[in-house]
TrEMBL record:
PANTHER family (alphabetical): HAD SUPERFAMILY HYDROLASE-LIKE, TYPE 3, PHOSPHOSERINE PHOSPHATASE
SUPFAM superfamilies per UniProt: HAD-like (SSF56784)
Highest taxon listed in the record's lineage: Bacteria
Alphabetical list of InterPro entries matching this protein: Cof, HAD-like_sf, HAD-SF_hydro_IIB, HAD_sf
Designated name of the protein: Cof-type HAD-IIB family hydrolase
Keywords assigned: Hydrolase
Gene3D superfamilies, A to Z: 3.30.1240.10, HAD superfamily/HAD-like
Length: 271
């Protein structure tokens, strides 16, 4: 008899802190679990805050040829074709206005910007602390430089407010102009209003003719909350932010302990 179909038709996984381990690799165990689920009929979609240029390397290492939702839902990328299918940009006038209003409330913020497109650069303005690692960026001395081309989103940092405090202050000051998400350590972002991972995932799933109820989603940060609300089942990693843990249907092991594989293997073992 053929093996039964996987309980979900779609597996949606965040990247950093979820699919990726702390060393930016994907374990052999997790790869094997995803492959086994695929053999049983499940599609896999990467859903990440990273824009396409920062995601392509990981997808290539996975030999991933499906759809990927990038830049907090603003981009749907066909990895097999190397083609950007959808892209939503931040109105730069609105972005400027939001920063001005925010700085009136909290003082100066350091700013970086993610430029639109398959090869869009990340421009880091004065004082912006960039995470060391393999993700390329371009330092700019004048913040005005970031407004010269279409943008997916802005990154903001503050010398005194922590990530949660800055995100809370930004929502209070400019939440009616832009979306505000905390996507990881030192990563608070301003997005087009109404944009979320859930919006991008819904677009990608529609292309595959898969419903929300047929989706299991994995994540670790507050920017994954809308994705969990959309999906049929939301699984938070043990290392997840408390805001996501509070809304998860299930909590699995940490990303460094093959948390995705733990859940997929259990689902694969169902008769």
């Amino acid at each position: 008899m053929p093996a039964p179909r996987f309980p979900y038709r779609l597996i949606a996984t965040d990247l950093d802190g979820t699919l990726l381990r702390s060393d930016d690799t994907i374990s052999a165990r997790t790869r094997a679990a995803l492959d086994a689920a695929a053999e049983r009929g499940a599609a896999h979609i990467v859903v990440t805050g990273r824009a396409v240029p920062w995601t392509k390397r990981i997808l290539a290492e996975l030999d991933y040829r499906g759809l990927a939702v990038c830049a907090q839902g603003s981009q749907v990328y066909d990895a097999g074709a190397g083609k950007l299918l959808t892209s939503v940009t931040l109105d730069r006038r609105v972005g400027r206005q939001a920063l001005d209003l925010l700085e009136k409330e909290v003082g100066t913020v350091a700013v970086a910007a993610s430029c639109d497109g398959l090869d869009g650069q990340v421009l880091a303005g004065p004082g912006y602390r960039v995470h060391e690692g393999p993700l390329p960026y371009v330092p700019v001395e004048d913040r005005e430089t970031i407004w010269q081309q279409p943008l997916n989103k802005l990154y903001i940092q503050h010398d005194q407010l922590d990530d949660d405090g800055l995100a809370k202050a930004a929502r209070a000051a400019v939440g009616d102009l832009v979306g505000v998400v905390m996507a990881g350590e030192g990563i608070v972002e301003l997005l087009p209003l109404g944009l979320s991972k859930a919006k991008g995932l819904a677009l990608a799933a529609r292309r595959l003719r898969i419903r929300a109820a047929e989706t299991v989603a994995f994540g670790d940060m507050p920017n994954d909350v809308p994705m969990f609300a959309w999906a049929g089942h939301g699984v938070a990693m043990a290392n997840a932010h408390e805001e996501l843990l509070a809304v998860a249907d299930e909590v699995t092991a940490a990303n460094d302990e093959d948390g995705i594989a733990v859940v997929l293997e259990r689902l694969l073992s169902r008769p």
